[in-house]
């Protein structure tokens, strides 16, 4: 087996970012069993990339699925093996489906080149290979892949932003609304018990007034974190409004939900909240209204309204309490 690490990884190099832009410094796998041909490819591409040569197509497939490569060059003429089969495998496996593949073919290979392109192979080169063309075609594919990756990452990031509250990191109102809508519209979920807790910090306005809006934000963040810590992964915790949080507790009746609420209420009351970056602490309490879904409920609004009524009673009865 012939290996050549023609260029070491350039992590931390100030040129690395620029290299990413220009489609350089990629990890390439060359599948070619003729040593002189492999050497020529490795020499040309090794100037710009990290190159590895593999002469066994079966091992090449395993390596490619490990995910360490940015592109695979496949010679169609391997001894006793149709390189097109490897291309086809790379295109069909989940882990390599988007991995760029470039075929290396002989002039007589037109039919197989066409079949390869049909399979979705990204590009090809015909022998004798022009060094500059090889470098340019590989660079184009590496750039395309990196662009697709960065696009996907930014789409994921903005999708996450769209359903997350910036201050607390909890789900936002939009996420909550669609989650609740699902609980009322999905046939498999409509018959299941579900409870909601509506939490509202007591006299939060006076916290802002006495200690500043920044301290109010610190309390809100800590409040959210404590609630997250007191709930399970299946519970959906969302910022409902300013200092109000909704918790959706699946497969739970009123009694179970009341216990969850009481545990949270106590957790807020007993442990003081640090403010001004931990230089002092204040006591905070929370009022919680709890409701469970009833057979007559048709919309999330019906359920939330009962939780809101219960919260209103908790406030009226003196705050720092749970009403179900
Ligand atoms: P209670 O609920 O006990 O009746 O009294 P309260 O003072 O908490 O009631 P109210 O709902 O009237 O006040 C909520 C306050 O929360 C008003 C608003 O200025 C403040 N607030 C809303 N969002 C934020 C925020 O993101 N950060 C800070 N610091 N304050 C916020
Ligand atoms: Mg409020
Ligand atoms: Mg209020
Ligand atoms: Mg309040």
From TrEMBL:
Ranges where the Response regulatory domain occurs: 27-142
Full-length numbering of the shown residues: 128 to 451 of 454
Originating gene: pleD_2
Catalytic activity of the protein: 2 GTP = 3',3'-c-di-GMP + 2 diphosphate
Presence of keyword Ribonucleoprotein: no
Keywords for the protein's UniProt record, in alphabetical order: Phosphoprotein
Protein name: diguanylate cyclase
Species for this entry: Methylobacterium crusticola
Domain GGDEF, first and last residues per copy: 192-324
Top-rank taxon, per record: Bacteria
UniProt-listed Enzyme Commission number(s): 2.7.7.65
């Amino acid at each position: 087996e012939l290996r050549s690490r023609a260029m070491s990884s350039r992590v931390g190099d100030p040129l690395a970012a620029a290299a990413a832009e220009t489609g350089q410094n990629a990890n390439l796998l060359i599948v070619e069993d003729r040593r002189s041909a492999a050497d020529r490819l490795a020499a040309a591409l090794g100037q710009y990339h990290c190159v590895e040569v593999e002469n066994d197509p079966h091992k090449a497939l395993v390596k490619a699925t490990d995910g360490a490569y940015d592109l695979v060059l496949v010679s169609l003429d391997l001894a006793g093996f149709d390189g097109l089969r490897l291309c086809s495998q790379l295109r069909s496996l989940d882990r390599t489906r988007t991995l760029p593949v470039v075929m290396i073919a002989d002039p007589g290979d037109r039919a197989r080149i066409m079949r390869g392109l049909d399979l979705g192979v990204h590009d090809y080169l015909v022998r004798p290979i022009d060094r500059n063309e090889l470098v340019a075609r590989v660079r184009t594919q590496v750039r395309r892949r990196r662009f697709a990756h960065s696009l996907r990452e930014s789409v994921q990031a903005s999708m996450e932003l769209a359903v997350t509250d910036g201050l607390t990191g909890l789900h936002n109102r939009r996420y909550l609304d669609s989650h609740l809508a699902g609980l009322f519209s999905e046939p498999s979920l409509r018959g299941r018990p579900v409870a909601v807790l509506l939490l509202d910090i007591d006299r939060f306005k006076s916290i802002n007034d006495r200690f500043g809006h920044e301290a109010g934000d610190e309390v809100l963040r800590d409040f959210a974190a404590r609630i997250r810590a007191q709930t399970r992964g299946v519970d959906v915790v969302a910022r409902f409004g300013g200092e109000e949080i909704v918790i959706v507790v699946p497969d739970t009746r009123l009694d179970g939900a009341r216990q969850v609420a009481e545990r949270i209420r106590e957790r807020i009351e007993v442990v003081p909240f640090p403010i001004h970056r931990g230089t002092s602490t204040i006591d905070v309490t929370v009022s919680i209204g709890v409701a469970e879904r009833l057979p007559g409920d048709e919309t999330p609004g019906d359920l939330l309204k009962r939780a809101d009524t219960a919260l209103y009673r908790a406030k009226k009865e003196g705050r720092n309490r749970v009403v179900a």
